Amino acid sequence: MTAIQDDRLQKIYAQRRAKLAAQMKKYGITAAIFEDTESRRDACVRYFTGHPADALFIFFDDEKNFLIPWDENTAKCHAHVDNIIAYSQYERQSTRAVKAVLNSMNIQGKLVAELPDCTPYPLFLQYIDTLSGWDVRCRENSLHQQARSMRAIKDDYEVECIKNAARVTDKIIDLIEEKIRSGDIKTETDAALFIEAECRKNGCEKTGFDTLAAGGARSFAIHCFPNYTDGQWPTNGLSILDFGVVYDGYTSDVTLTVAKGKLSAAAERQIKLVQKAYDECLKLYKKDVPIIAASAKAEEIFSKAKRAMPHSLGHGIGLEIHEEPFVSKRSSAEKKFIPGMVVTLEPGLYNPITGGVRLENDILITEEGNTVLTHSRIIRM
């Protein structure tokens, strides 16, 4: 990393933390504890620090901050914070670490510490016993929820990372189409391992989730189980491939369907309905449109054909594969698409006889409308 790049990232993380500090002052929170550990993952630690995984992050309303990582050397390479303290100094006990940092600040006045809203009750009680003099809070509608909501609208750097993930994703999609037509990809395992290798070759950290590859006999499942086998892929009929790649922490998420051979009228109808829902709903992925309107449009299209989609229409992506906002019939009427959101559009229909069809791409909401970042498609063979 060059000095210019490092300085840019320092400013980005500082700006994010400044927004968080403003919220803390508004609600009278002195210190916030974020935890990204094996039992309780929280991508907000990476969002506010750049550290990839396994750490406590303690942040104060005056913007002072401490990262307590499991791997101090990794933190020194990737984190953009004021203070790094090895977790081993506290025998890797979160309560001891938090107590030591909070007491080191010598803060006067009312002391309020907010824990992650997913903190187990027994651990919450341990914090209460440990943090004498502090009002320890763990609640719904917490600062941590506000932090997750902040992540719904991507800054320029995040959009840049997601675009890079999308670029690699598109390259892989094109190569997969070439290789299934040439016969070089023959099985579900071939497809999944090819994606794994290509994403690494192109500078990605990993796949965004375990790739889902389903031949015609298994594509009826929304998420096939097992994720992939040594069975043929694609098969005659409808086969599905769902994958994503992670670039500098940010993931893509796409699904393509391969329609191979002569299809039944029912399967052709399924493809037509999914493509129609995709095309019509894309028009609603734009600034100030209620998120629920897109979901309602998909339901309208499918219900007229006496079909129903068994999952939501889409979700935000970023540091996690599922983030706010969620494009669902459960979305409130007040929630609208906002420029900077990156959201999947993924209508799908599934049937035990005909198999499944899903078409999924990643959409950036812009001031002018939207930009389709990935170019997954229904491939005919």
From TrEMBL:
<dbReference type="Pfam" id="PF00557">
    <property type="entry name" value="Peptidase_M24"/>
</dbReference>
<dbReference type="InterPro" id="IPR050659">
    <property type="entry name" value="Peptidase_M24B"/>
</dbReference>
<dbReference type="InterPro" id="IPR029149">
    <property type="entry name" value="Creatin/AminoP/Spt16_N"/>
</dbReference>
<dbReference type="Pfam" id="PF01321">
    <property type="entry name" value="Creatinase_N"/>
</dbReference>
<dbReference type="GO" id="GO:0008237">
    <property type="term" value="F:metallopeptidase activity"/>
</dbReference>
<comment type="similarity">
    <text>Belongs to the peptidase M24B family.</text>
</comment>
<keyword id="KW-0031">Aminopeptidase</keyword>
<dbReference type="InterPro" id="IPR001131">
    <property type="entry name" value="Peptidase_M24B_aminopep-P_CS"/>
</dbReference>
<feature type="domain" description="Peptidase M24">
    <location>
        <begin position="160"/>
        <end position="367"/>
    </location>
</feature>
<keyword id="KW-0482">Metalloprotease</keyword>
<feature type="domain" description="Creatinase N-terminal">
    <location>
        <begin position="16"/>
        <end position="131"/>
    </location>
</feature>
<keyword id="KW-0378">Hydrolase</keyword>
<protein>
    <submittedName>
        <fullName>Aminopeptidase P family protein</fullName>
    </submittedName>
</protein>
<dbReference type="GO" id="GO:0046872">
    <property type="term" value="F:metal ion binding"/>
</dbReference>
<dbReference type="InterPro" id="IPR000587">
    <property type="entry name" value="Creatinase_N"/>
</dbReference>
<dbReference type="InterPro" id="IPR036005">
    <property type="entry name" value="Creatinase/aminopeptidase-like"/>
</dbReference>
<dbReference type="GO" id="GO:0004177">
    <property type="term" value="F:aminopeptidase activity"/>
</dbReference>
<dbReference type="InterPro" id="IPR000994">
    <property type="entry name" value="Pept_M24"/>
</dbReference>
<keyword id="KW-0479">Metal-binding</keyword>
<dbReference type="GO" id="GO:0006508">
    <property type="term" value="P:proteolysis"/>
</dbReference>
<keyword id="KW-0645">Protease</keyword>
